User: What shape does this take?
Amino acid sequence: MASRKDILERYKKYLFPALTPYFGDDAVIVDHAKDQYLWDIEGNQYLDFFGGVLTVSIGHANDEVTERTIEQLKRAQHTSTLFINPIMVDVAEKVAELTPGRLQKCFFTSSGSEANETAVVAARMYTGQKDIITMRHAYSGRTQAAMSLTAHGTWRMGGVFDPYIRHIRNPYMYRAPFEMTEDEMVEIVVKDLEETIATLTNGKIAAFMAEPIQGVGGFITPPKNFFKRIAEVVRAAGGLMIIDEVQTGWGRTGGKWFGIEHWGIEPDIMTFAKGMGNGIPIGATIATPEVADAYLGATFATFGGNPVTMAAVMAVIEYIEKHNLPANCEVQGATMRRYLEEFKSEFDFVGDVRGMGLMQGIEIVKPGPEKTPDPVKTTALIAAARKHGLLIGKGGLYGNVIRIAPHLNVSTADMEAGCKAIAQSLADVAQ
Ligand SMILES: Cc1ncc(COP(=O)(O)O)c(C=O)c1O
Assistant: This one.
């Protein structure tokens, strides 16, 4: 095995510097990973509570996924969408069964960005309108349309933006401009949506697009009646509801298969990636039959519905189903929340605790009423967690939100161990 120094030197020489690993020159250089653990090249073992950004959903190198993937690799590795492979049909049927409402027809790609690009094109073709409205603090990916949908300055660098994508305020309760109730916040966002439609469009829109919980944005969780009120306005303007479940899907939010189900609306299009494949590259867009059928002309994705990917995805979905992981996310998520709320009362720099199920975050601020973001302490906190053998993530526009997202099948013992490591890390950085 090459040394840290050698790997880092060659990393810097041969990779785009825009890829910035956590911890800089002290980056975790992965040797191997199994189930809940990951080992670096120095032999340190970490409990993984971030899963490669909510992507390793059922544990590293999950045996059932590995076996099914290898079996399929030996059988047929690649077909392209010009030939039909039965497992793609099986997965599409399964996704249609599990998703809410009338969502029925799938288009498979290889990433969340592509899934969202597909959703935007589908909505525009179906409605004959161009305007897509989304929210500030959204993250939708790194391709051109996905970057246009994204509303984080740093993640839009180098983009040439789609002028028909508009961003309204998001319901960020912790950073509301003044004291307000959740209902008041919802009405402010709804008003912004109405005014955006009235002032910037011809009165008709193609779609509204949102993550149920803004992931990269720092797990910003909308009030309960939010999406119902938004959908009323969107539908009155002829628009579709596109829901990005790239982070929130597959049970993550606890008790339901998909995040949006907590808000009780039926999307016209949903997108997936990340946890759907437990690390195997996947993107998927599902739409109602009429929206899918309006996608005119021929389209193609070399790797879309790749049989090996599909075998892995099927194994992941069946594993989640067999072990009822949406329920585990609810139970373990409640434990995690209890700990995080305790931390909030104990440490004056924990400003906010939010999220659902196994997708919870804490916002780190300088103590005091100003709620000044503290990205330096946030970085120190993930470094402290690493010292205690725990991997967690960060995010948020100001880089001051700790993102905690254990695997969907996390055990009670691991949840306790992880939360204790977070407590120790908070104590370390408090000094
Ligand atoms: C909510 C959401 N949508 C889309 C994407 C883009 O996915 P990918 O990186 O697979 O293109 C991400 C990635 O973080 C995401 O969090």
